[in-house]
Amino acid sequence: VLLRWLQSDHVGSEISHIIIDEVHERTVQTDFLLGLLKPVLKLRPDLKVILMSATLDATLFDKYFRASGCSQIAHVDVEGRTFPVHPIFLQQAVRFADYVIEDDSPYARRAVYDAATMLALENTSKSTTHLTDSAKHLMKGVSATGLVDGGA
């Protein structure tokens, strides 16, 4: 929206502040906007541009805007806090929630199919003609679910 506005009103006369968050991500849109803002700031010294990021390299943007003649550049550093992160994987979450997938669920059938495929591929690489008893058993179970045709 801002880019369209600046196309029609090249100095953004109705805008007093522009806030760009997560500026460290350096997308095409933000880089293009920063390129448009350089000449606008020369014409509009009253326009305030606020760049925000948790991991901003302030000196990079400081140099960028000072090179275009902007002299009123301020930095505000807000001390952040880190919080401990405890990764929980899907298998743990399912156990923690005490959830059991029903036997006729498509997810259960998919898990059986994936396990059988893994065993079959593993054993096929060892011997192209023989599968272990466990792989045969799993393949029969998969065939019974209707996911694949035929048995082992």
From TrEMBL:
A GO molecular function held by the record: helicase activity
UniProt keywords, alphabetically: ATP-binding, Helicase, Hydrolase, Nucleotide-binding
Database matches in InterPro entries: DNA/RNA_helicase_DEAH_CS, Helicase_ATP-bd, P-loop_NTPase
Keyword hit for DNA repair: no
Superkingdom of this protein's organism: Eukaryota
Keyword ATP-binding: yes
Gene3D superfamilies given in the database record: P-loop containing nucleotide triphosphate hydrolases
PROSITE patterns for the chain: DEAH_ATP_HELICASE, HELICASE_ATP_BIND_1
Annotated Helicase ATP-binding domain residues: 1-65
SUPFAM superfamilies: P-loop containing nucleoside triphosphate hydrolases
Family: Belongs to the DEAD box helicase family. DEAH subfamily.
This protein's name: Helicase ATP-binding domain-containing protein
Record organism: Sphaeroforma arctica JP610
